[in-house]
Design brief:
The chain is mostly beta strands. It contains 1 helix and 14 strands, in the order H-E-E-E-E-E-E-E-E-E-E-E-E-E-E. The strands form 4 sheets. Strands 3-2-5-6 form a 4-stranded antiparallel β-sheet, with no helix packed on it. A 4-stranded antiparallel β-sheet has the order 10-9-12-13, with no helix packed on it. A 3-stranded mixed β-sheet has the order 4-1-7, with no helix packed on it.
């Protein structure tokens, strides 16, 4: 009887070992798994002047693994060619999103952020100083009176709202030329824009930025 009990315990232990080993094979460790590729071109700004011979890297934001170790870090490093082209071949390190960076002083500057992990991307346009031209247009369905005031985000002076008094007419309110795009990244970039008529609640929106082009914003007054 004891012999059978011992054999059953041995078989159960062997099964647990096999299950554990099988689970380990189904889960890639950091640095295992497929190789991904990201290609693109680095420009100085919207004048499209390529940046040649620039050191550049692909960095993955750190995550903490079940073992307590940090996963992520620099996935690949390269130097742009004479036409600003670059290519990263890399393996995922089980971190979070990725960024394309260049050295800056004692640290780095992120040029392109929020790249999803475990993906290949091709022909990215990356800028050291990306900008957009913003046009804010007023669409009036109700002109109101000279006692009414409209306040809205001023991209020429973010510390002070742009203010206009009624009666209102449909028109181009203002332009902001070469507005710098912060946190440039994937898949698109947005602005935080708001407007407020008199003491009504502020209306907020997040218009999509047209990099190196015109970003149109419409304010509709009903």
């Amino acid at each position: 009887m004891k012999k059978y009990i011992i054999n059953i315990k041995f078989l159960a232990l062997s099964s647990l070992v096999l299950i554990f080993q099988s689970c380990k094979k189904d889960t890639d460790s950091p640095g295992d798994g497929p190789t991904y590729t990201i290609t693109g071109r680095l420009f100085e700004d919207c004048n499209m002047q390529p940046v040649a011979n620039q050191k550049i890297d692909l960095f993955q934001e750190y995550s903490t693994g079940l073992d307590g170790n940090l996963n992520g870090g620099i996935l690949a490093q390269t130097t742009t060619d004479a036409n600003g082209n670059f290519k990263f071949d890399f393996k995922d390190m089980d971190g979070f999103t990725e960024s394309i960076r260049i050295p800056a002083g004692q640290g780095y500057t992120k040029l392109f952020q929020n790249i999803p992990q475990n993906q290949s991307l091709f022909d990215l346009r990356v800028y050291k100083s990306p900008t957009t031209n913003i046009k804010v247009n007023l669409i009036v369905n109700n002109s109101y009176t000279n006692l009414d005031t409209l306040r809205l985000t001023d991209f020429n002076n973010l510390s002070t709202p742009y203010k206009i008094s009624g009666p209102f007419t449909s028109s181009l309110l203002y332009e902001s030329v070469d507005f710098p795009i912060l946190n440039f990244g994937y898949p698109q970039n947005i602005l935080n824009f708001g407007y407020k008529l008199n003491n009504n609640s502020e209306v907020m929106s997040t218009p999509t930025i047209t990099t190196c082009g015109i970003t149109n914003i419409e304010v509709v007054i009903n």
